Amino acid sequence: MPLDKIEQVMRSFLWKGDDLSKGGAKVAWDSLCLPYKEGGLGFRDVEAWNRAAMVKHIWHLCTDSDHSIWSSWVRNYLMKNRNLWTLRAPGER
Fold first, then answer.
1. Cα 53 to Cα 51: distance, rounded to the nearest angstrom
2. For residue 71, which phi and psi values (nearest 5 degrees)?
3. How far is CA 92 from CA 55, 77, 82, 88, 89, in A?
4. Banded model confidence at residue 51, pLDDT cuts 50, 70, 90
5. How far is 73 from 67, CA to CA, in rounded Å?
């Protein structure tokens, strides 16, 4: 599911109904993503969370610090024990 669709589902969870459909959102989405201590609801920015998760995966693959089955499979099967920075994306020449 694309990130914008996930965020759309999150927004519609809060703002579904007749009285809000005409006037739009009553609260800015960015303010809802603030932590509780800052007055928000603590919702996650899906795009930022996704970026952080991808970087964490790359970090584990580069440092060999994660010994999970997934990391081992990626290193041995997809990367074939090559350096991450020398790999080419599918379809890239």
1. 5
2. -60, -40
3. 21, 19, 17, 6, 5
4. very high
5. 10
Tokens 């930022």 belong to 48
60 with 71: CB under 8 angstroms? Answer: yes
- Give the pLDDT confidence of 13-32 residue by residue, as tens digits: 776 654 445 556 667 777 88
Could you give the C-alpha distances from 61 to 23, 32, 44, 85, 86, in angstroms and in order? 47, 33, 25, 11, 13
Cβ contact 33:43 at 8 Å: yes
Q: What is the pTM of this model?
A: 0.60
Which token pair is 92?
A: 């890239």
The single-letter code of the amino acid at 61 is: L
Q: For the chain, how many helices (H) and strands (E)?
A: 5, 0
Question: Which of 61, 86, 60 is closest to 76 using CA atoms?
Answer: 61
